[in-house]
Design goal:
Strand order of the largest sheet: 3-4-2-1-12-11
Order of helices and strands: EHEHEEEEEHEHEEEHE
Mean pLDDT: 95
CATH architecture: 4-Layer Sandwich
Largest sheet: 6 strands, mixed
Low-confidence stretches: none
Structural class: alpha+beta
CATH superfamily: Endonuclease/exonuclease/phosphatase
Length: 238
């Protein structure tokens, strides 16, 4: 991403709680409306698959195709599922997907992460989406495993990491493991959606990326669509 005419890329992270809102209604259409408000190029979702039965995608694929400019990165781990342990990545249809794979993490409960290598407006970008453990001990192990996965990639590439870290502290725990390698975008608290007090959702970037702007999306619809608010950042080359 060293082109002088490189355009900023807007990314977002959203724990959609299997499309169940704060009113306990399952409404995938509301989630997609919130994504339309965000208007991001790339969105990492958490809790994107229903966690019972065959674990189908919480958002019907045909609804994504018919009503949004996005397509899901095709991990195709389970028939009818969107991601890996609920982690999924949506990208605009003009974005080229070079490679993609799930990331195995040390786990106490079912957790995982997903990676995609993309070309956005001629710019290469690696994206990692995650949903970490409720246990601080396991969050640290998972953070270190994700860093190791990124460092083991054969081709260096500007990288953004995002997701629900489940970390209530402001600077300790798994945040220390990530901060040694990545810079955090200055997003605000995102949980609970009705009265956000915790920065459980985070966006991070490698030093070759500048975070140009960042925030937490506080629309009236977002406060109803899930128990997390989505967070976003705009990144560009340094």
């Amino acid at each position: 991403m060293n082109q002088t005419d490189a355009r900023p890329i807007k990314i977002a992270s959203y724990n959609i709680r299997k499309c169940v809102g704060t009113d306990r209604q399952r409404r995938p259409d509301r989630i997609l409306s919130v994504l339309a408000e965000l208007d991001a190029d790339i969105v990492c979702l958490q809790e994107a698959d229903r966690r019972t039965g065959t674990r189908l995608s919480a958002i019907p694929f045909e609804l994504i195709a018919q009503t949004t400019p996005y397509r899901a990165v095709p991990y195709e781990i389970r028939p009818g599922g969107m991601g890996w342990h609920g982690n999924a990545i949506l990208v605009r249809r003009d974005i080229e997907i070079l490679a993609h794979r799930p990331l195995d993490l040390p786990t106490l409960e079912p957790r995982g992460a997903v990676m995609a290598e993309l070309v956005v407006g001629g710019q290469a970008l690696r994206v990692v989406g995650m949903h970490l453990d409720l246990s601080g001990l396991w969050r640290g192990k998972q953070a270190r495993a994700i860093v190791a996965h990124v460092e083991a990639c054969a081709q260096p590439m500007p990288t953004v990491l995002m997701g629900d870290l489940n970390e209530w502290s402001l600077a300790s725990g798994c945040l220390r493991d990530f901060s040694a390698h990545f810079a955090f975008a200055p997003t605000a608290p995102s949980f609970h959606a009705r009265r956000p007090v915790a920065r459980l959702d985070r966006i991070m970037a490698t030093p070759d990326l500048a975070v140009l702007d960042a925030g937490t999306h506080h629309s009236a619809l977002a406060k109803r669509a899930s128990d997390h608010l989505p967070i976003w950042a705009t990144v560009g080359p340094r």
